[in-house]
Amino acid sequence: MDERTKKILIAVIESYINLAAPVGSRYISKKFALGVSPATIRNAMSDLEEMGFLRQPHVSAGRRPTDKGYRVFVEELLGCNVASNEDLRALLYKKNAYFTGDLNGLIDYVTRSLAEYSHYLGVALSTTMEKSILKKMDFSNLKNNMIVVLLLTEEGIVKHKVVDSKDVLTQDDLTAMASYLNSQFRGCTLGEIRKALLDSVYKDMSMRDDLIAKALNLCKDAIYPFNLDVFVSGISSLMDLPDFYDIQKIKDLTKTVDDKQKIIDLLDKMMESEGVQVFIGTDTFLDTEELSLVASTFFDKGGPFGVLGLIGPQRMDYATAISIVDTSAKFLSNHLQSR
């Protein structure tokens, strides 16, 4: 693609993002000073369609970008220096003092701010619990082999979960198991506990003592779901966009958002990446080509601590989304570094 054709492609994409409607060559000619005739623009748009960068919904309609076209546009944006969103940055630093000692509260606030500033869906994933230190673990019988697991961390975080036990356990059994696990793991992070449960020492102990084996299995069932915290905000704003005008699209969107595990899996894959990443349409693995994701990892003392991002329509304002996400991720990294 030569430079002139690329400028025409970018002009079409910028126009489609603003108009939410297919774009014709006459509009591009009037709106952009490209120094070429409408006929040249029309021919270039036809060539771009043949190359798979644009598509024409109807014979008489203008053209709209494809995934491939958006990818060229996004690569151009990412190749430039990302400008900070100064209004958002100032707001986050102003509110920072309200969340002293409440890291999850801060991440939740940043996620909501992402959604409010973009009108897209703000999402975040943090490893707060992974790094939390166990203070106490308790088990209580509920009914029909259902056990309530209660975790208390040194940071004051309380988590509970109902676990379906394969074994018939009395309350005395559960009390003994909790006592054993607390003696072994109190003062350890949940991440360290998870790694310890894979250690050969505990495997050997479980082979020699049936109650210890049951305690370790119950601990594993209790600990594993608490390793990641997911935050989601802004679904109503996303539904207000013209891209989700019919009931079926709203149903598909709601199904995607409700499946928190899918969002966790998607963001978790990005945990080792640096800088802003953009996934377009089918790239997002969200079971719908209607959506795109702009996301970035935030760090604590050099190591990845979480991922935050924006989910929006393919027609999202990528330049603004990239700026908002980059600003928010850098803010959280700076906050974590200065603790």
Q: What is this structure, in a nutshell?
A:
By secondary structure, this protein is α+β, with helices and mostly antiparallel strands. 49% of the residues lie in helices and 19% in strands.
Descriptive notes:
The structure is a single chain. The protein is built from 14 helices and 10 strands. With about 350 residues, the chain is α+β, with helices and mostly antiparallel strands. The protein folds into 3 domains: about 5-80, Winged helix-like DNA-binding domain superfamily/Winged helix DNA-binding domain (Arc Repressor Mutant, subunit A, Orthogonal Bundle); about 85-125 and about 230-335, GAF domain (Beta-Lactamase, 2-Layer Sandwich); about 130-225, 2-Layer Sandwich (Enolase-like, domain 1). The strands form 3 sheets. It has a 5-stranded antiparallel β-sheet, sandwiched between helices. α2 (about 25-30) crosses α3, α7 packs across α10 and α9 (about 200-210) crosses α10 (about 210-225). It is elongated and about 85 Å long. The protein starts with a helix and ends with a helix.
Top keywords for this entry?
single chain, 339 residues, alpha+beta, Arc Repressor Mutant, subunit A, Beta-Lactamase, Enolase-like, domain 1, 3 domains, five-stranded antiparallel β-sheet, 14 helices
Summarize the SSE layout with pairings.
Blueprint: H1 3-19, H2 25-31, H3 38-50, E1 54-55, E2 64-65, H4 67-78, H5 86-95, H6 103-118, E3 121-126, E4 134-143, E5 146-153, E6 158-164, H7 171-185, H8 190-196, H9 200-208, H10 210-223, E7 229-233, H11 235-239, H12 247-258, H13 260-268, E8 276-280, E9 291-300, E10 303-313, H14 318-337
Antiparallel strand pairs: 1-2, 3-7, 3-10, 4-5, 5-6, 8-9, 9-10
Helix pairs in contact: 2-3, 5-14, 6-14, 7-10, 9-10
